[in-house]
Amino acid sequence: MKVLPFKIPKPENNALIYQEDIEVVFYDKLHQHDEIQISFIEKGNGTLLVGDKISSYAKNDIFIIGSNLPHAFKSDKNVEEKSKMLSLFFTETSFGESFFELNELAEINHFFSKSLQGLILKSNKTEIINNFLKLKNASKLERFILFLEILKTASNTKSEPLSTFVYNKKYSDIEGKRMRNVFDFTIENANQRISLDDIANVANMTKNAFCKYFKKRTNKTYVSFLTELRIENACKLLNTEKDLSINEIAYKVGFNNISNFNRKFKEVKKVTPLSYKNL
């Protein structure tokens, strides 16, 4: 299976694709596809990588991932219960070249430009979730109507971008494999010391070449990316391991200096670790 680009299995004559993922671990390889993806997390927790940004996902989250936006869902380890994600896949031309240009659909036109960086929806979630839960047993016509309802609600809800930068070229297979290896290694070893020489070796590049390569494709340095991942891991522990001290969490996620952890945490999250823990 090619990692990038990734082909969504498409039933014959189906313009709209509905998919259920019920797994202990979702498909977690960095990939991209032409289709826009709207996903509802019915069960599960983990790490979401979209474009240049690391975030978390949890039950009842709703994500929109734009066309050809590289992404990966990394389910939390040591979880026995299966995760469940419901998704819709479609393109701007799935229903005809000019379908979304119809005057009747004008109120959702801005949806496509917003989706380029990916979105997490922040309001009107109950309405969208209820429609998602109806999709499985719906006829094809009913599913299409539900899709339009979901699209309408998603177009008019509060949201936050998932990525701050979009590399506007498709990854080649070689690039896709290289970036996948870099992200996989980083996520698996974020709590350990990772030097630029280490990660450059993973990418099979010299250190200087790797730094330029990574910055061009993510608009940030590798060190910044690693720091953001560690901060995201710290947030999970702050939310779930209330008995751990701030110091313990800092060292557990890969920081060897508590003052540096506090400074970097506030830079990324705009609050101190203690304030975040008490939210």
User: What does the overall shape look like?
Assistant: globular
Give me the number of helical elements.
10
Strand order of the largest sheet: 1-7-2-5-8-9
From the alpha carbons, calculate the radius of gyration and give it in angstroms. 20 Å
Number of strands: 9
The major sheet is characterized as:
6 strands, antiparallel
Strand content: 15-25%
Would you identify the regions where 5 or more consecutive residues have pLDDT less than 50? none
CATH architecture of the largest domain: Sandwich
Mean pLDDT: 89
The CATH class of the largest domain is: Mainly Beta
Please supply descriptive tags for the structure shown above.
9 strands, 3-stranded antiparallel sheet, 279 residues, Jelly Rolls, 6-stranded antiparallel sheet, Arc Repressor Mutant, subunit A
Task: Give the SSE map.
Layout: E1 17-23, E2 36-43, E3 46-50, E4 53-57, E5 62-65, E6 71-75, E7 83-90, H1 110-115, E8 119-121, H2 125-134, H3 140-155, E9 159-161, H4 173-189, H5 196-202, H6 207-218, H7 222-240, H8 246-252, H9 258-269, H10 273-277
Antiparallel strand pairs: 1-7, 2-5, 2-7, 3-4, 3-6, 5-8, 8-9
Helix pairs in contact: 2-3, 5-6
Describe the structure.
The protein is of the alpha+beta class and 279 residues long. Helices cover 40% and strands 17% of the residues. The protein is built from 10 helices and 9 strands. It has a 6-stranded antiparallel sheet with strand order 1-7-2-5-8-9, with helices on one face. The protein has a 3-stranded antiparallel sheet with strand order 4-3-6, with helices on one face. The longest helix is centred in the last third of the chain and has 19 residues.
